[in-house]
Design brief:
It contains no helices and 16 strands. With 212 residues, it is mainly beta. Strands 5, 8, 9, 10, 12, 13, 14, 15 and 16 form a nine-stranded mixed sheet that branches. A hairpin with a 5-residue loop joins β13 and β14. Keywords: Signal.
Length: 212
């Protein structure tokens, strides 16, 4: 399998790309299958590398808050653990990107417009990143990559990722204050702070596509 490494650096609304390609925008990916980000970019520096190998995809990122207020970073998807879940920053949601590739993300997903009654709104772990501070994380996704969505299969029997995708990218959701009342943060038993999906608009910081 092919191997390519995409390295991107984003500062606020400006884009600096170390690999030489233009940063892939994410705000036009309006679909139940993917996270969307319509909020303007906060003053933050986002650096990310995406490195696929034959056995896994490794993402490393840092986010530095250059504002004078905290940013709410959506960085801990839920993972099944026994009879419950744990929220971890080393995993990612995995969906199609709308362009024939795969999108890995740590982000809020909207309420699906499907004919299904969900028992509850899924939650996701967050980090409130203080002004001037930097958040760093490593995400490892085994290959073959499996569909991973906070709302499950969206009422379908099964949803698969694009067949033979040529590229993969990573997106991180960030919410700027003031945070809406719907985005009520709660502490879980393991100490992680969580919010519900579909609770706020976000900005998506995204990497360049990396070749699979």
């Amino acid at each position: 399998m092919g191997r390519a490494r995409a390295l991107s650096r984003v500062m606020g609304a400006a884009v600096l790309v170390a690999a030489g390609a233009a940063l892939a925008g994410c705000s036009d990916l309006a679909s139940d299958e993917r996270p969307t980000g319509e909020a303007p970019a906060p003053d933050a520096e986002f650096e990310v590398s995406v490195e696929p190998t034959a056995s896994q995809v490794t993402v490393h990122y840092t986010l530095t808050n250059r504002t004078d207020r905290p940013l709410r970073v959506i960085d801990k998807p839920a993972v099944a653990a026994g009879a419950g879940v744990r929220y971890r920053n080393d995993v990612a949601y995995a969906t199609g990107d709308g362009e024939g590739g795969v999108m890995l993300s740590q982000a809020l997903f909207g309420m699906p417009d499907v004919d299904v009654e969900f028992e509850s709104i899924p939650r996701v772990g967050i980090t409130d990143l203080a002004a001037g501070e930097t958040l760093e994380a490593d995400v490892v996704v085994p290959r073959p990559i499996a569909w991973n969505h906070p709302w499950g299969d969206l009422g379908e029997d099964e949803i698969e990722l694009p067949e033979d995708p040529e590229s993969i990218r990573f997106c991180l959701g960030v919410v700027s204050p003031p945070f809406p009342e719907a985005m009520l943060a709660e502490a879980e038993d393991d100490g992680v702070t969580t919010v519900t999906h579909a609770s706020a608009d976000q900005h998506l910081f995204c990497s360049d596509p990396a070749t699979l």
